[in-house]
Design a protein that fits this description.
Elements lengths: L3 E4 L11 E7 L6 H13 L7 E8 L5 H11 L3 E6 L5 H11 L4 E5 L10 H9 L5 E5 L11 H18 L10 E5 H7 L10 H11 L4 E5 L12 H21 L5 H18 L6 H9 L3 H28 L6 H17 L5 H13 L3 H33 L2 H10 L1 E3 L2 E3 L1 H28 L6 H7 L6 H20 L2 H28 L6 H18 L11 H13 L4 H30 L3 H21 L1
Parallel strand pairs: 2-3, 2-5, 3-4, 6-8
Antiparallel strand pairs: 1-4, 5-7, 6-7, 9-10
Helix pairs in contact: 5-8, 10-22, 11-12, 11-14, 11-19, 11-22, 12-13, 12-22, 13-14, 13-23, 14-16, 14-18, 14-19, 14-20, 15-16, 15-21, 16-18, 16-20, 16-21, 17-18, 19-20, 19-22, 20-21, 21-22
Length: 624
C-alpha cells in the first residue's frame, strides 16, 4: 500500500494554527474546488486568517482531484494537500491527516457539503472553547431540518439504533459527516480505534464516551447531495461486523477471565447434557451403559487413538503445501491441545490455541496457522459429507430412503425416548446444508485455482462498489489461495483426501465397536453402513459451535438415524451415542493433557495469548 505524502509549497507554515479542517476526498474532482473555497470563506468569517488550515485528505483518487488539490495548495498557504497512492479508507485518510495537522481542534466534514455550513462555527467553538472534547452534528435531534429520504432514513435509524443498543451510546446520530475532536481526545483514542473506513468516526464517538470525554451532539440542517444505496459489503459485512467487534472488545472481552471461561465451558456442557433428558430417561441410558462390555469399550478407545497420528500426518502435509516442514509428532500434540480446548471453551475457541502453539513453538505465522486449520476443516467436511452421500446412495438402492422419510415426518420414539420430527428435521437440515456448502466450496476453489481471472474480487464486487471490497476480498483471497495450494495440487489433494478418509473411517469403526460393546447384534453390513451414515450426519450437525465439543447435536443425530435405519432400540442408540462421544472425548482429553505437559502449554494462557498475538500481528500489518 502506498504511503501517504504531503504535497504543499515549501514556504507554507503551520505557525499559529488553532483549527485544522480535514476534507476526506475520493474522486471529488467535480466538487472539491468549490468545497475548499466555501470552507475557507466560512472559517474566515469567525476565525483570524492565520488561525486555521484546510487539509484535503485525498485518498488514492484516480481522477483529477490530486491536480486540483495541488493547485489550490499552491494558491493559498492555508490549504494543504495530503496524498495517498492507494486507498486508506475514509477513517484511514482522516487519521493520517489529523496526525499531520497543526491545530489543537481537529474538524472534518463531508465534501458534498450536505450539512449547512452556517453550523461550522458552532461545531468548531464547542471544542475550541474547551467546553467539550468532541462534537457532532445530528440529523435526528429535535429542531433540525433534514431532508431524509426513506431509503436513507430507514437504514440510518436501524444503524444508529444498533449502535445505541450494543455499544451503549447516548448519541442519536453517529454517521453525520460533521464532527470535531480536541487534539487530546484524538491522541488518547487513535490507537484503540481499529476501523479505517466508514465506522471510524462512530468508533471514535463510542470510545470517547466510554473514556469519559465530554461529547456534544447538536441539531443541524442537512440536505442529501446525490443518490445512495444500501451496500451489502459496506453496510452488513463492514459496519455490522464492526459494531459486533467493538461490542465484544468493550463489553465482553473485559469480563472474560480464566475462571469465567472454564465455568462457562462447564456450564454449557452440563446444559447440553441436561437437554438430552428431554428425549430420554437418563436411568434407561445408564442401565444400557451398565451392561457394556469393558473390553470392547477399551478396544474402541485404542482404535480411536489410531486416528490421531493420522491427523498429525495430514496436518503435516497441509503445512508442507504452505511451505512449512514440521514433524507429525509435534503437530499431533498441537491438534490434541486445540481439540481439548474445543471441549472446554465455547464457540471453538480451542482452534485459536493450535495457531498459537505452532507459532509459539515453531514460529509459524499466525495467519498461516489459521489458514492451515481452515484447510483441514474443509477436508473434514468434504470427507464426512462424501461418506454420508455414498451411504445415502446405497440406502436409495435398498429402499432405506423410506425409513429416512418416515423419521423426518414423525420423529423417533420408543420406551422413554421421544425426539420430535421438528428436531430431527433441524439436525438433518444443518447436516445437509454444511455438507453441500463444503462440497460446492471445494469444487469452486479447485476450479478457480486454474483460472487466470480474479474470481473472488469480481464476485465480491458484484455486491458492493465501496472500498470495503478491497479489505473483504483481500481476506477471502488469502484464505482461498491457501486452500488452492492443496486443492489445486492433485497429488496434495489426493494425499490429504485419503488421510481424511482414513481418519473418519477409524472414527466410524470406533462407533461400531461401541455398538458391539452394548450388545447390538444385527447384520454386519447394515451395522457398518448405518454407522457410517449416523456418524457422518452427527459430525456434520455439530459443526455449528452451539456447545463445547458438539455435545447434544451429535447424540441426537446418531440416535435418530441409528434407531430409524437399523433394528436398534432408541435407548440403545442414544446410549451408544453417549458412550461413543465419551470414549472419543476421553481420548482427546488424555492426549491433550499429555501434550500440554510435554509442550509446556497452558490451555487458558494459550487462549489469552492467541488473542494478543492476533492484535500485535494486525498492528504490525497496519504499520507496514
Amino acid at each position: 500500500m502506498g504511503r501517504p505524502t504531503e504535497r504543499r509549497p515549501a514556504a507554507a507554515t503551520a505557525a499559529g494554527v488553532e483549527v485544522s479542517v480535514v476534507l476526506p476526498a475520493y474522486n471529488e474532482a467535480r466538487t472539491i474546488e468549490n468545497t475548499v473555497r466555501v470552507t475557507v470563506e466560512t472559517l474566515e468569517s469567525f476565525l483570524p486568517a492565520d488561525a486555521f488550515e484546510v487539509i484535503v485528505a485525498e485518498d488514492g483518487c484516480d481522477d483529477e482531484t490530486p491536480e486540483i488539490a495541488d493547485r489550490l495548495a499552491a494558491e493559498d498557504d492555508r490549504i494543504r494537500h495530503y496524498h495517498s497512492d492507494a486507498r486508506l479508507g475514509r477513517g484511514g485518510a482522516l487519521e493520517r491527516a489529523f496526525e499531520a495537522a497543526a491545530g489543537d481542534t481537529l474538524v472534518y466534514f463531508d465534501t458534498d457539503l450536505a450539512t449547512d455550513m452556517r453550523h461550522l462555527e458552532e461545531l468548531v467553538e464547542r471544542v475550541r472553547s474547551g467546553e467539550y472534547d468532541a462534537a457532532t452534528g445530528s440529523r435526528w435531534m429535535p429542531d433540525r431540518v433534514a431532508d431524509r429520504p426513506r431509503k436513507r432514513g430507514v437504514p440510518s435509524r436501524a444503524y444508529n439504533g444498533l449502535v445505541r443498543l450494543f455499544l451503549r451510546s447516548d448519541l442519536r446520530d453517529h454517521q453525520c459527516g460533521f464532527k470535531a475532536f480536541s487534539r487530546e481526545t484524538f491522541e488518547a483514542l487513535r490507537d484503540d480505534v481499529e476501523d479505517d473506513h466508514w465506522f471510524w468516526d462512530t468508533e471514535m464517538l463510542v470510545r470517547a464516551q466510554r473514556a469519559g470525554f465530554r461529547v456534544a451532539e447538536f441539531p443541524v440542517d442537512w440536505e442529501p447531495k446525490g443518490d445512495t444505496k444500501v451496500d451489502l459489503v459496506r453496510d452488513i459485512l463492514g459496519m455490522g461486523s464492526q459494531i459486533l467487534r467493538t461490542w465484544w472488545q468493550l463489553t465482553v472481552r473485559p469480563r472474560i477471565t480464566r475462571r469465567v471461561t472454564v465455568a462457562a465451558g462447564l456450564l454449557l456442557t452440563v446444559f447440553a447434557l441436561a437437554l438430552m433428558t428431554l428425549y430420554i430417561d437418563p436411568s434407561e441410558v445408564i442401565s444400557v451403559l451398565g451392561d457394556a462390555d469393558p473390553a470392547l469399550v477399551a478396544a474402541a478407545a485404542v482404535i480411536y487413538v489410531v486416528s490421531w497420528p493420522l491427523r498429525g500426518i495430514r496436518y503435516r502435509d497441509i503445512l508442507g503445501e504452505l511451505g512449512y516442514r514440521e514433524k507429525a509428532s509435534f503437530l499431533t500434540g498441537a491438534i490434541f491441545i486445540s481439540q481439548t480446548g474445543n471441549l472446554v471453551f465455547p464457540a471453538r475457541a480451542g482452534d485459536a490455541v493450535r495457531a498459537y502453539v505452532v507459532k509459539a513453538r515453531r514460529n509459524i505465522p499466525y495467519p498461516s496457522g489459521f489458514a492451515s486449520l481452515a484447510v483441514e476443516r474443509v477436508f473434514d467436511l468434504l470427507t464426512i459429507a462424501g461418506l454420508a452421500g455414498v451411504v445415502l446412495v446405497g440406502l436409495a438402492a435398498t429402499g432405506g430412503l423410506d425409513d429416512i422419510a418416515t423419521v423426518l415426518a414423525t420423529g423417533v420414539s420408543g420406551g422413554s425416548v421421544d425426539v420430535s420430527a421438528g428436531d430431527v428435521r433441524t439436525v438433518a437440515s444443518v447436516a445437509t446444508g454444511v455438507g453441500v456448502v463444503a462440497i460446492l466450496g471445494v469444487l469452486g476453489i479447485a476450479l478457480s485455482a486454474r483460472a487466470d481471472r480474479n474470481v473472488v474480487r469480481a464476485f465480491v464486487g458484484r455486491f458492493s462498489s465501496d472500498s470495503y471490497v478491497e479489505l473483504v476480498a483481500g481476506v477471502i483471497e488469502q484464505f482461498v489461495s491457501d486452500l488452492q495450494a492443496v486443492a489445486g495440487n492433485r497429488a496434495a489433494f489426493g494425499r490429504v483426501g485419503l488421510t481424511s478418509l482414513a481418519i473418519w473411517t477409524v472414527d466410524v469403526v470406533t462407533a461400531v465397536v461401541v455398538l458391539l460393546a452394548l450388545g447390538v447384534d444385527i447384520d454386519p453390513v447394515v451395522l457398518v453402513g448405518v454407522s457410517f451414515f449416523a456418524v457422518s450426519v452427527g459430525n456434520l450437525a455439530k459443526v455449528l459451535p452451539l456447545s463445547p465439543g458438539g455435545v447434544g447435536l451429535y447424540e441426537i443425530a446418531f440416535t435418530v438415524f441409528m434407531a430409524a435405519l437399523a433394528p436398534v432400540t432408541p435407548a440403545a442408540a442414544l446410549a451408544a451415542a453417549v458412550l461413543d462421544h465419551a470414549v472419543k472425548n476421553g481420548v482427546t482429553v488424555v492426549g491433550g493433557v499429555a501434550s500440554m505437559l510435554s509442550l509446556n502449554v497452558s490451555l487458558t494462557t494459550a487462549v489469552e495469548e492467541s488473542a494478543d498475538v492476533r492484535d500485535r500481528d494486525r498492528e504490525l500489518a497496519e504499520s507496514e
